[in-house]
Amino acid sequence: MIQFQNVNKSYGNKKILDDLSLEIRDGEFAVLIGPSGCGKTTTLKLINRLIEQDNGKITIDGRDISEENTVELRRRIGYVIQQIGLFPNMTVEQNISIVPKLLKYPKEKCDEIVHSLLKLVEMPYEEYAHKYPAELSGGQQQRIGVLRALAASPPIVLMDEPFGALDPITRELLQEETRRIQKKLKKTIVFVTHDMDEALRLADTILFMQEGKLVQAASPEEMLRNPANDLIRSFMGRHMESANGTAKLLAEDFMRTRVLKVPETMHTLECIEMMRQRDVNTLVVLHEDDTYAGTVSIETIRKHGQAGREIRELISDEAMTISRKEDARAAFDQLLASSLQYLVVLNEDGTVAGLITRTSMAKAMGEALWGELTS
Ligand SMILES: Nc1ncnc2c1ncn2[C@@H]1O[C@H](COP(=O)(O)OP(=O)(O)O)[C@@H](O)[C@H]1O
Ligand SMILES: [Mg+2]
Questions:
Q1: What pLDDT is attached to residue 157?
Q2: What does the pLDDT read at residue 282?
Q3: Helical (H) or strand (E) element with 292
């Protein structure tokens, strides 16, 4: 367990940490979040003694860290920052081996660590071990950075906005991977972010800091349900609102996105075959630039379809469209007031985002009321 007891830290006459007390249990994924400058990085650096507090006590497993040898201490604590700082003139294997070598593990043990860690993140040894950082993508470099922190298996890993500079897709992959590794190896992770999405996705416990103080420590669910103050509420933003069902719901919240879309030049027979295979009775037809052209129902094809004709000849302009950002209320009104079976939801560029059907609407309302439905 990591414990802060009344910890204070100032720079000059500026108080950075103000009587901070907190606890992080073994094997816990703890996420420190709060506005920029609230003291998250400072808190993290105190744990591995990159800086020292002015007063108050920090213990790990009951031992006061100020009485420990810092080199020993840091061997038990992995550290990942945004600029991961892989050594550019060392291979992936050498980068991962730094800590095990420092710990003076025998060569076989070092090799074993490198192999097992690369396996863990699905980067085959043969392919990656001998590459240099510059030969890897940003996401792969960060993966190696995370690996290096886990190498030699320190029980505690500190991570300071490690994925801040990555694109959203790589970021999500690494979040999942980190969570998976943490669960598997039962690490204690202290993770800093200012992104509530990330915190909600990763944390067992979210520690919300404000002006050098801990304002709330709670599970994601609990924090969503009972945010301690307005700042936390605003950080929760849309999550918060959807938990209470008071958010402004948009058309996009009610659409289904799996829609059969075909180019307008497709032949009728082919369209029928696709509809049969996918078991749908409506087609969305697109212009050549992927913008919405219209819809065609199976009834229309039955009545008017002829082999060899292009599907665009059968487009009816009965379907109504709605922009995905439009108020869901408008979608309801349109759908309920008409005899239409569905509305076509469009993206801002005129391409098709999805369809709102009576079924998709009912399902989304059910989920809002009772949470995720099973099917
Ligand atoms: N070495 C330093 N000297 C002076 N002020 C510092 C130093 N390090 C951090 N600070 C100040 O302490 C405050 C908290 O910093 P930090 O812990 O990095 O915040 P966070 O990570 O939450 O954004 C900021 O106002 C920052 O400017
Ligand atoms: Mg910081």
A1: 93
A2: 87
A3: strand 292-297
Secondary structure of 257-276 as H, E, C letters: CCCCEEECCCEHHHHHHHHH
Question: How confident is the model over 167-181, as a mean pLDDT?
Answer: 82
CATH 3.40.50.300 residue ranges of the chain are 2-244
H helix or E strand, kind and range, residue 286: strand 282-286
β-pairing, 213-218 with 320-323? unpaired
- pLDDT, tens digit, for every residue of 45-55? 999 999 999 99
Report which residue type is found at 113: I
Q: Of 10-19, 107-116, 163-172, 265-274, give the lowest mean pLDDT range.
A: 163-172
Task: Give dist(CA 147, CA 151) in Å, integer.
Answer: 6
Is the pLDDT confidence value at 208 over 90? yes
Classify residue 104 as left (phi > 0), alpha (psi -120 to 50) or beta: left
Q: Say which residue the tokens 């990591």 belong to.
A: 2
Assigned token pair, 336: 């309920």
Amino acid residing at 31: V
What pLDDT is attached to residue 240?
62
- Residue from 9, 18, 42 whose mutation best tests the ligand 1 pocket (most atoms within 8 A of CB): 42
**Above 50 in pLDDT, residue 375?**
no
pLDDT at 185 over 90: no
Helix (H) or strand (E) holding 21: strand 14-24
Which conformational region is residue 260 in: left (phi greater than 0), alpha (psi within -120 to 50 degrees), or beta? beta
Contact 36 CB / ligand 1 (< 6 Å): yes
Vertex 285 angle, CA 279 and 289, to 5°: 135
Backbone angles phi, psi at 118, to 5 degrees: -65, -35
CA 37 to ligand 2 centroid distance, Å: 7
Within 10 A of 38 (CB to CB), how many other CB atoms are there? Answer: 22
Ligand 1 close to Cβ of residue 38 (< 6 A)? yes
| DSSP helix/strand/coil, 150 | helix
Q: Which CATH class is domain 2-244?
A: alpha beta
Residue nearest to atom 7 of ligand 1 (CA): 11
Domain spanning 251-370: which CATH class is it, in words?
Answer: alpha beta
Positions of CATH 3.10.580.10 in the chain: 251-370
